[in-house]
Known about the structure:
This protein is an alpha+beta fold. Helix content is 71%, strand content 9%. It has helices spanning 4-13, 24-44, 51-54, 69-79, 104-118, 132-161, 164-188, 194-223, 233-243, 245-270, 273-306, 309-324, and strands at residues 48-49, 56-62, 85-90, 94-99, 125-130, 191-192. The chain has a four-stranded antiparallel sheet with strand order 3-4-2-5. Strands 1-6 form a two-stranded parallel sheet. Helix 4 packs antiparallel against helix 5 (104-118) and helix 6 runs antiparallel to helix 7. The longest helix has 34 residues, at 273-306. It is elongated and about 90 Å long. 36% of the residues are buried. The mean pLDDT is 81.
Amino acid sequence: MRSMSQFGNDLYTGKTSIPFVGRRRLWFIIAAVLVIGAALVPLFRPIQFSIEFTGGSQFTVSGVATTDQALATDAVRTVVPGATTKVVTVGDDTVRVQTDQMTDAESREVSNVLADSYGVSADEVSYSFIGPSWGADVTRQSLWGLAIFLALTFLILALYFRTVKMSIAAIIGLVDVLVITIGIYALFGFEISPAAVIGFLTILSYALYDTTVVFDKIRENTSEDGEVSGRTFGESVNLGVNQTLVRSINTTVVAVLPTGAILFIGALWLGAQTLTDISLSIFVGTIVAAYSTIFVAAPLYSLLRENEPGMKSRDARVLAARELAGQPA
């Protein structure tokens, strides 16, 4: 059985080749199913936004002897019947309760009832509220941050690679990452918070880095060797993806392992919500980003360039020369 280093060497030299470009129709169908499925998920399971986006009241009960969440729900509804509540346990002795926005009088009364329900003093219960205008401002700033990131990415890639088509393929790959990641959040009921948005921007940066490395190798294969290599454009693109495949896998594993450890520690041990939100988005997005670069962005770039008249003529000459030499097309 070949070692990973031997496998990587065979991929780099072309002795072993995985047909990422040759089977791009299959990858595109899978990608389309994933994207459409991710886009449809919120219709059946609405995306859960944190209180920072929706606005509302938040109560934190510390030093509790029991973390029974039903006590918090019942306490809130004794004051405000029918109120929507979300209760989470933080660590071993703290309960966080989020509700619809309440008046000051209702918040004080709920605070007292929570203290009585959990058997703690009133000083152990803190509360705050976030208004809808502040939540709308957070949403607007998040969308602006995403739009600016994508616009700068498109411009920088176009300047660096000197071709708009690489930018188009890269941006579509980034959108693919974002849509699927948000779809996974909606499917499993994960909450999107400002910390999660920071995580989304982080994984887009990671996806951009991974795509740039792969595209740089593709550019080297397609621009420096020309027809001398005896490869068609699609074959040169496929070789570039294979040559960077082991690096992409290693980078993804190296990123996922510590992020997974932080996620485990933050969620199950410390109960740190912000740490959990950031690490969860990075953990999910890193895996999706690795898939998108290899199976979507690179094959898509090949498709965009292969239909150019000059590229068609070049590939035809390569195939004709190969046929004259008695090599399989």
